[in-house]
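Human:
Class, as today's exercise, you are to examine the entry below, and be ready to discuss the fold:
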Amino acid sequence: MNEQSKRNKIAWEYRAYEYWNKRYGTPQKLAGQIVENPIAQLKKHKDYFKHIEGKKAANLCGSNGRKAVPIALLGADVTVFDISKENKQYALELARYAKTNIDYIVTDIYEIDLSAYQNYFDVLYLEGGILHYFDDIEKLMSILYALLKTDGKMILSDFHPLRKCVLADSKKISYFENKHLQLGDLAYKDFLMKLSRLIFPVYLSVYIH
């Protein structure tokens, strides 16, 4: 595990389970909402999952299971890959209360066991702003390619981690060049800091300059 992944693991295993409970309610409460209308939980991506029943789907950086559980309820065989044990705890409880099953593997995405999952999945699902956690996009994409079946589909929804949306000098820049790692606060730091004065760990993200 490289330095970026080590820092990100420490950060995302710090009180994440507590945060999910405060943000979305208990797994039991959220499960009740998901069960009522699973497809609606996928929001703008729901059309991609209308015929997911019986297929193998991987939710990479799947976090607390908010997307994996509804996909499982729609009939897919779902595997989550994520770096955080605290995320796993919430996700598995969420699946249990929703009366469905997901396989949740705690791992660095760079270290997924390709001998077990080569050409395995019909669908890969990545969403919610995750690309900035990876400093080697070419390596990430080669892993995703290896996971997919020949006729598989990848659904990737993200933002390009540019410092500014519009560059004043209009210069073209590439994600693959002129980048370094920078420290960043967890998304839920401000939320929990209102309840606690503890020091939060930071994660490393890719910064383009």
